[in-house]
Design goal:
alpha+beta; MetI-like fold; 2 domains; 5-stranded antiparallel β-sheet; 4-stranded mixed β-sheet
Length: 452
């Protein structure tokens, strides 16, 4: 019977495991072979990650020269130094604002481009800045934020909009000639000492403008003639190339100042007003007889120069704007990929139930995109903590301290002239400690997704 059982089970029975057969790991090979293949990666990981972290921690416990042990003094100095505290504050602003701004822009672009034919072309344009290095982007936006409207695109736009609603001054650098009857009267205006008389022309000479710099194509000034019962006069540039002529008198070759506003003021009230013609002459009605002539400050106000984008107040928001220009495309591409994976039946079901587009977006689309939005947000938070070159290039030297962040302060402390490698290492360790909670949240999220 035992022989029949042996014969019956002989064909399908597994051969007994030999005690001499070497054991294999779950990946199907010997452990020492797997370790051999992992060795180069482990060596690189140790040399490029583990050793620098360990050395930075050790170096942060020594002074700037590395010869004296100072313990945690370098870490205490981080929170005592005003410049480093500004860097901590600005880093917190970057972490709170920049990732949220890029993620919001990416979400808006991803949702809106689904509804237009040229959505692919739009996504390409938005994503193109990602192909530009931080150095190149910094140079671009340093020019964009240039204070001079003739050079900076941002101020060119701002001044164009401003000038569209506000009249620009005609001659911002003009002023009365020495010995003139015109005297400063507050608010940038100039008023005559003597009252105007009908039948006696008033002469209002101005200087402060080079003859070749008078706007437009100025005509030669013309001496006003008596206008009967009206008040007449001339506004002109009392100077000509080569000199000569008599002060306060309209000489041949002197240029007229067109468009200058002239007001007749009596008892603090304007009783009449006009503007000078192309030849510099002007005429006021008879009501101006006995009034003083005033050239209001609007004729001489300095032209609007735009916004000081890189000044102490706006330098950090301006640089965050440059960062959003670069990284909004990254957020848009990832969110668009997540949006493509959403079940459209859920969206249609919400619309059938009476939800409008805003409700569908807020209560269906955004919750379904939450994992993707978290990935984008966490990735950008880690990225902004090490932002350095964009700030170093865009912020001018007078405003660099106001735009300072921890990564830039690390460079300035260790390599920017201070030569304090102990303080620089301490800041590096602080940055690592700030990144670790974000990394822990990301790892925890990945583990939860695997369990699903």
């Amino acid at each position: 019977m035992s022989s029949s059982v042996a014969k019956a089970g002989g064909a399908g029975a597994l051969p007994p495991a030999s005690s001499a057969t070497p054991r294999k790991s779950v990946i199907g090979t010997r452990p020492w072979v797997a370790a051999l293949f992992l060795l180069p990666a482990l060596v690189l990981l140790g040399a490029l990650v583990v050793y620098p972290i360990g050395y930075s921690v050790w170096r942060s416990l020594y002074d700037s020269g590395g010869s004296h042990f100072v313990g945690v003094d370098n870490y205490v100095d981080i929170f005592r130094d005003d410049q480093t505290l500004i860097a901590v504050r600005n880093t917190a602003i970057w972490v709170a604002v920049a990732p949220a701004l890029c993620t919001a822009l990416g979400l808006i672009f991803a949702v809106l481009t689904e509804r237009v034919r040229w959505g692919t072309a739009f996504k390409l344009i938005v994503f193109m800045p990602m192909a530009i290095s931080m150095l190149a982007a910094g140079i671009i936006f340093r020019l964009v934020y240039e204070q001079d409207p003739n050079q900076g695109a941002a101020n060119a736009i701002v001044t164009s909009v401003h000038d569209a609603f506000t009249d620009a001054s005609v001659y911002p650098k003009a002023r009365p000639a020495i010995g003139s009857d015109l005297k400063a009267s507050g608010g940038g205006s100039f008023t005559t000492k003597q009252t105007a008389r009908a039948g006696t022309p008033a002469f209002l000479p101005l200087v402060g403008i080079a003859p070749g710099k008078v706007p437009g194509n100025p005509q030669n000034a013309k001496a006003a003639r008596a206008g009967g019962d009206k008040v007449t006069g001339t506004v002109w540039l009392d100077f000509k190339l080569g000199g000569g002529g008599e002060k306060g008198v309209v000489d041949a070759g002197e240029k007229a100042l067109k468009g200058v506003k002239v007001e007749a003021v009596r008892g603090g009230k304007v009783v009449a007003s006009t503007t000078s013609r192309a030849d510099g002459t002007f005429t006021l009605p008879g009501t101006a007889d006995g009034a003083r002539l005033r050239l209001p400050g609007s004729n001489f106000a300095t032209a609007y120069g735009g916004v000081d984008w890189l000044g102490p107040a706006l330098v950090t928001p301006s640089i965050i704007g440059a960062y959003a220009w670069m990284w909004a495309g990254f957020a848009m591409v990832l969110i668009a990929a997540g949006l493509a994976g959403i079940d459209r039946n859920l969206l249609e079901a919400a619309r059938v139930d009476g939800a409008n587009e805003w409700q569908v977006f807020r209560k269906v689309t955004v919750p379904l995109l939450a994992p993707v939005l978290t990935v984008v947000l966490v990735t950008l938070m880690i990225n902004v903590m090490k932002i350095f070159d964009l700030i170093y290039i865009i912020a001018p030297q007078p405003s660099q301290d106001d735009a300072n962040v921890l990564a830039l302060q690390l460079f300035l402390s260790a390599f920017g002239g201070q030569g304090n490698f102990g303080a620089g290492s301490a800041i590096g360790v602080l940055l690592l400690l700030l990144v670790l909670p974000v990394m822990w949240v990301n790892i925890r999220r990945l583990r939860k997704e695997r369990q699903r």
